[in-house]
Amino acid sequence: MGRRGDVLELAVLGLLHESPMHGYELRKRLNSLLGAFRALSYGTLYPALKSLLGQGLIREAGAGQGPALTGKRGRIVYELTAEGKERFQSLVTQPGPAAWEDERFNVHFAFFSRTDAATRLQVLEGRRSRLQERLEGFRTSMTRTRERLDSYTMELEQHGLESVEREVRWLTELIDSERAGNMTHLEDPDRPRPTGPARSGVHGAPDRGR
Amino acid sequence: MGRRGDVLELAVLGLLHESPMHGYELRKRLNSLLGAFRALSYGTLYPALKSLLGQGLIREAGAGQGPALTGKRGRIVYELTAEGKERFQSLVTQPGPAAWEDERFNVHFAFFSRTDAATRLQVLEGRRSRLQERLEGFRTSMTRTRERLDSYTMELEQHGLESVEREVRWLTELIDSERAGNMTHLEDPDRPRPTGPARSGVHGAPDRGR
DNA sequence: GTTAGCATGTAAGGAGTTACATGATTTT
DNA sequence: AAAATCATGTAACTCCTTACATGCTAAC
User: Does A108 map to a domain?
Assistant: First the structure.
């Protein structure tokens, strides 16, 4: 509720912006949105919906119209109110520095099509700087301790390092595309990525969760 | 205390197994160990140390010997007790299915040198299956929803997918190495990864797999 | 008509963060 | 001797999960 780490708020508002939905379905969409695969539980979702309802950001759809439509309480379909839409827009177009934290970034990114290029660049570049700071600290700590580590620990750190490096490259490509023609290589998802800067990259983001 | 998600217990015992340390220093080591870079707070660490102390798994080092040594309360250096060592060994050699969750996996991996090859294979393979399940669900949900997603969401899912694929390949290489001569390619960290299945590629690996 | 799965919720508790409070040691 | 930073700790609060409790709806 507060103003705190409410990734959920943004995510729920964003999904309901696409189309009205009931909680059960919302959860499924949420799970693929929030860092691949955290199984968000109902114990989190339903109270959150309640809170959004209380704030007047969402309302039950179908209320007031046909009384026989959803009638006897089964699913409860929610939709955004006018304030909800405004709220979403302001959240998504005014990304604080929190927007480049691991999980928030994913959510912000997923709603990029509702923002302007300037906002997108801001988020992408913020995220990249964040990761580059990490790389920095990572590399120094690796050289600092390189002697006294066994092979397994080194292998682990190496893999983590490469994962972050890969994500930086990914971001760089997105930033370049965004700066050039807006997202040329994203415009037609069916075209098999013609020639562009080889974004097929193989290396991956670090472990999921973060 | 509980038996639950005590990643911390394993991590702390493991680090103290290497050498005695005080909390402040422990935290730094912990942060590079626990999924690259979570800044674990003192509010978590110190109570955890207290709990381990209460369980008799660690003790204050230097107590009983020279009373003037650490004397006036500055740092408190902890070391493992005999029970602590046993506990660590049993945790590390009997990995439950929890060992392939995102964060626990890292910690287990970091202490691989204290285990036997059978345990290592069990953990690596368990982790790989876990990720492959994810890929499965990932891919089905991607085809299920492929039409109604905008380019940004697709780009995000694609990147996530490739990240997981990359980790699976990494695990596969480790498993193969483990099965062949034990970790031949890990034995000499200075050798620049001779010929093996090209896992070195820091930049834009040619791989293209997927 | 009963099982299985959809759908909504609540209560208890775990695990961690922030903010606060305090003292010791090192650097300038 | 002041400032910075090392070091330890506590209290309140947040976010989330687990386990539970309940009812509706579809399939067999």
Answer: no
Judgement on whether residues A135 and A171 belong to the same structural domain of the protein: yes
Residues A24 and A95 placed together within one structural domain of the fold: yes
Q: Cβ B113–A155 below 8 Å, yes or no?
A: no
Answering whether pTM is above 0.85, one says no
Of B109, B138, B166, which to mutate for an interface test with A (greatest number of A Cβ within 10 Å)? Answer: B166
Q: Which domain holds residue B158?
A: 116-186
| Same domain flag for B146 and B92 | no
A45 touches A109 (CB < 8 A): no
Does B60 lie in the same domain as B139? no
Smallest CA–CA distance from A109 into chain B, residue = B152
The per-residue pLDDT for range B112-138, each reduced to its tens digit, is 999 999 999 999 999 999 899 888 877
B135 burial class (0-12, 13-18, 19+ CB within 10 angstroms)?
A: middle
* Interchain pair A138, B36: CB under 8 A: yes
Question: Rg of chain B's alpha carbons, rounded to an integer?
Answer: 21
Q: How far, in whole angstroms, is CA A4 from its chain's centroid?
A: 16
**Per residue in B145-186, pLDDT tens?**
666 678 898 898 889 899 999 999 999 999 999 999 765 555
The closest alpha carbon to A170, from B63, B130, B41, B161, belongs to B161
Residue A69 sits in a domain whose CATH number is: 1.10.10.10
Are A84 and A123 members of one domain?
A: no
Task: Tell me which amino acid residue B8 is.
Answer: L
| Dihedrals phi, psi of B58, to nearest 5 degrees | -130, 165
Cβ neighbours of B155 (radius 10 Å): 23
CA-nearest of B186, B167, B182 to B127 is: B167
Q: Are A51 and A147 in contact (CB under 8 A)?
A: no
Number of domains in chain A: 2
Q: Integer distance in angstroms from CA B14 to C1' C7?
A: 45
A45 beta partners:
none
DSSP classification of residue B94: S
CA distance B68 to chain A (A): 31
Query: What does each C-alpha distance from A207 to A1, A164, B104 come to in angstroms?
Result: 29, 10, 11
